[in-house]
Design brief:
single chain; alpha/beta; flat; disordered C terminus
Amino acid sequence: MEKPLPVTSMSSLLDPKAVAVVGASQRQSRGTSVLMNLIEAGFKGEVFAVNPRYQDVHGRRCFPSVAALPASVDCLAVAVAADAACDVLEEAFAHGIRAAVVMAAGFGEGGHGEERAMRLRSLADKGMRICGPNCFGLINLATNAALYSGPIPKHLRSGSVALVSQSGGLGATVFSPLMGDRALGFKYFVSCGNQIGATIEDYVEYFLHDPDISVVAIVVEALKSPRRLPGLARSAHAQRKSLLLFQAGRSAAGRVLAQSHTGALAGDAGILAAFLRRCGIVQVESLDELTETIELFAVAPCDETIGSEVIVVSGSGGGAAVAADVLDAVHMPLSPLNAETKERVRSVLPDFGSVTNPIDGTGAIYDNPALLPKIFDAILPEPGRPVIAASVSARPVGNEGMRRLASTYADVARSSGRTIVAYQYSPLGGPLDPDIVGMLHAARIPFLLGTANAMRVLRYLPLRQGYWARSAREGAASEWNAGAERAAQAASHLGDCDFLAARNALLASGVPIVEADLASSEAGAVKLLRRFGYAVAVKAEAAGLLHKSELDCVRLHCASERDVTDAYQTVVANARKAGFADAQALIQPMIAGVAEAYAGIIDDPLFGPAICFGLGGIFVEILEDTEIEMAPLTHDDAMAMIYRTKGVKLLEGARGRPRGDIEAMANLLVGLGDFAVANSGQFRALDLNPIIVKPSGEGVIAVDIAIEPNQQPTANAAE
């Protein structure tokens, strides 16, 4: 794990008082772009250039070397090639400068840059605060410190949002339009690149200490120190600040591109999503969602009594239908409208209007100025304080009818104190009407672009409120802590354990595993058949023996002594033929149930142990119906995992089938979570597959265990 940087020490990087641009010149270059951004943005501190060819660059004093700079300089923008950048930073450190933005690539993300990366890491370890390398740089909009090489908006607006993006291009795609088109203010925009020095977690910690910031947004390909995030999220929740994250490179192809771009492994997207849920960090699904959610969180009032439903008010029946479809797809419920609300709506709408939700006010809301206030009067008393989403268009500029609608929304928001979100049907078109945007923002009404985008992100409002409330409750935290305490008592040393040793360790955590024993001879196998008293499974057992079914090392439903003798001979012979000379046979009683399930542990080196669950047993990979949560689990966590799977209806007794023991399945998952925490670091993964689910009240039992150790690229099994 990367060592966190002291918050105060980040100030020289993010809030410098005097800066110098290394590589600025009279010709167009990356360094010149940085210098001009600083000048045109109106940076409030001193600005110098470093280039031995000039004494003056664009009206700013130019020095031949970093060593010649005034002592007041506390941060450099280094816009030279990678090899030269290393020399510059070492010279700067010797000169007493402790912060720098390094824009060049070539530090381990491709080619032969690892030696350069080591030089930068050495400086970072000594206390130098480095943004980058391979980045656009950063902007502090409170001081206009634009240590940034890309184009920036003409009018910079300081505000309550901080954005840190590993990709400068993606970050700029969010930052510039929000500031330019919707006049949303930012305090910081950081393009952090490869994070060799300061990490995303360092920036987030710094932002959370800033009282001016209420929204922290992250665009990430790979996190360096994710286990710092739970503590940072708790700090954000306590201050009622919003944390949201978009991960680029979630697919297999995307992870390859992310690695080639940043030189870092992105990790498993499913585990990251589970980790963020546990932290209480809102994860958005796309860059468009990130843009709209920043607008939503930054502008909407912090209403902790907000409901989990939405009322949509539209001037188009087709537009209302699109909104309803999107809300259904993302499981954001429409408020059903009680009888009293429907009657009030019916009394004010034209005869051809819709009194269902979404409410189609028809084109009459544009023609009759008195109608829209009456609609709001009708819906505001609806119980549950649902979010109200209302359509308006800010294109073209100067449409008086749309300005009247926006003015009505603003009046209602001020007088009611309710959360109202305005949205435009399409994100496309020309410039937005600044009067409409300004009117809405002044009344704390977010303005979202595109019906689909707007409806998708509305679900993040109650999600954020839920994270805040969960963090404030001591109960949830103590339940997870209790799981960690239970886990500590169940810790075992697994090593390269066989099935029986793994079974004993899992049983100690409350995970039910089928009874089993080893037989080293045919007679021993027959003796175990007699002991179990009914049909058994016979499986070859040897250290490192994997994929037993593929090697024909498994026989099921062996009910007679002849069956068991033949099975023993076959599975042991096949195992020895495959190179396992010391193979024996594992004998287990056959178990019947109403369904098969799968549960497993992934001990992720970045995020820690996670629990996986799915239905389908040996077909789980084909069905692709699995859920992941971080360990340990509460009983509610386990039940939620089960009920999120599509196949849960099989456990509930679909089509006349007996109902499965869902409660026992949840208890198994809780025990497995305790085991995962207790034994974290001892293995890479553990699978229980299949798990036989018996009828309700009769329990569940795992019949196979497979363990993948840390030290080997292939899995070790105890099946």
